[in-house]
């Protein structure tokens, strides 16, 4: 999978991560499907509903409202992003458990580095994806 992320959104991710520190920042990726992946056109930040500092949980009501707004515009929710304030930008065991929805792109940022992944679904974890501008 190839995840196309425009430069302005790529630089916005570390800023969003820093604003949530020491907690994880999280949100949804808005965009559209391409021949070999997704093209991201927006980062929709969510409140982090997780109790722990090293976890995230996206606000389902925010997602539903976002999907309603996007309906009929040729764009949709294509993935999830979140930050690892104190770790490498690779999926944690908790991320793998939480990734029940296959086919979504995941972006993980440590602040310094952002990586892309394809969620395989049903707790099967992730395959590495390629992040391009
Ligand atoms: Zn994580």
Features of this protein?
globular, Cytidine Deaminase, domain 2, alpha/beta, 3 helices, 23% helix, 7 strands, binds zinc ion, 133 residues, 7-stranded mixed β-barrel
Structural class: alpha/beta
Mean pLDDT: 96
Strand fraction: 35-45%
Q: What's the gyration radius in Å? A: 13 Å
How many beta-strand elements? 7
Binned, the helix content reads: 10-25%
Bound molecules: zinc ion
Low-confidence segments, given as residue ranges, are none
Number of helices: 3
Strands in their spatial order, largest beta sheet: 1-3-2-4-5-6-7
N-end to C-end Cα span? 14 Å
Q: Summarize the biggest pleated sheet.
A: 7 strands, mixed, barrel
What oligomeric arrangement do these chains adopt?
single chain
Outline of the structure:
The protein is an alpha/beta fold and 133 residues long. It has three helices and seven strands, in the order βαββαβαβββ. The chain has a single domain, classed as 3-Layer(aba) Sandwich (Cytidine Deaminase, domain 2), CATH 3.40.140.
What would you say this structure looks like, in words?
By secondary structure, this protein is of the alpha/beta class. It has one domain: Cytidine Deaminase, domain 2 (3-Layer(aba) Sandwich). Helices cover 23% and strands 36% of the residues. It contains 3 helices and 7 strands, in the order E-H-E-E-H-E-H-E-E-E. It has helices at residues 7-20, 60-70, 93-98, and strands at 2-4, 26-34, 37-46, 76-83, 105-109, 114-119, 126-132. A 7-stranded mixed beta barrel has the order 1-3-2-4-5-6-7. Strand 4 (76-83), helix 3 and strand 5 form a beta-alpha-beta unit. It is globular, with a radius of gyration of 13 Å. Bound molecules: zinc ion. Zinc ion binds at residues 82, 84, 92, 95, 108.
